[in-house]
Amino acid sequence: MLIEIKDLYKIYNEGKESEVRALDGVSLSIDRGEFVAIVGQSGSGKSTLMNVLGCLDVPTYGDYHLDGVDVTELSDKKLAHIRNKQIGFIFQGYNLIQELNALENVTLPLIYQGTPLGSREERAMEALAKVGMDGRAKHRPSEMSGGQQQRVAIARAIATHPPIIMADEPTGALDSKTGAHVLEILRELYRGGTTVILITHDNGIAATARRVVRLSDGRIISDEAQEVDWE
pLDDT tens digits, residue range 94-153? Predict the structure, then answer.
């Protein structure tokens, strides 16, 4: 099993009147090569769950094994290493560095991963080509539309060839046509063997996944496989 969490809690202000259980006893397993949508309204705990799954945050209680490793016991440095090697992140806000062009933005995770200088640009251009943005490699984010920026952000996420892609509302700031293109890129990654975890509040977006996990008030209320017609 690639991802396995058991009785996971994320509690803010524990024991106080203002206590919030963002995650309230969540257990979930995700195997290699799955395409899973985690769905819930604002405040349901879905982004908190992604942050924990992505080793961006640590749970208050509970077990989390990623590819057989108990990540709850790891130092910040080791968590950063796992993020660099195992996970590519796509965020609604793109999170591109405005002073860098597309190629430089995509190259950044390769630098952190220790990719040799000679192959960094080649790998980055390969990733940009996969999302149809190789022709805009020298353009800065301010010179691109929202959809183009999101495609550059996807290129950055896949440049290191991570086994897992975690996408948090990746179409939230895009028009429907551009959003559909982004979802098609995620489906292509899935077809190529990448594990895709898609965080969304939109049932229409969730309908593109092979499995839908629904959250409410920090708890899983359903977990179902579904038929899709795009394969």
Answer: 899 999 999 999 999 999 888 998 899 999 999 999 999 999 999 999 999 999 999 999
Q: Which residues contact 82 (CB under 8 A, 6 or more apart)?
A: 55, 66, 69, 71, 74
CB atoms within 10 A of CB 204: 11
Helix (H) or strand (E) holding 187: helix 176-191
CA dihedral over 107, 113, 119, 125, signed as positive or negative: negative
CA–CA separation, 86 vs 66, rounded Å?
9
The answer on pLDDT for 231 being more than 70 is: no
CA distance 31 to 4: 9
- Helix (H/G/I), strand (E/B), else coil: 150: helix
Structure tokens at 184: 């098609």
| Alpha helices (runs of H) in 39-175, residue ranges in sequence order | 46-53, 76-86, 102-113, 117-130, 146-158
d(CA 117, CA 112): 11
pLDDT tens for residues 44-54?
999 999 999 99
Lookup: tokens for 140: 């800065």
Query: How many CA atoms, within 13 angstroms, populate the side-chain half-sphere of residue 148?
Result: 16
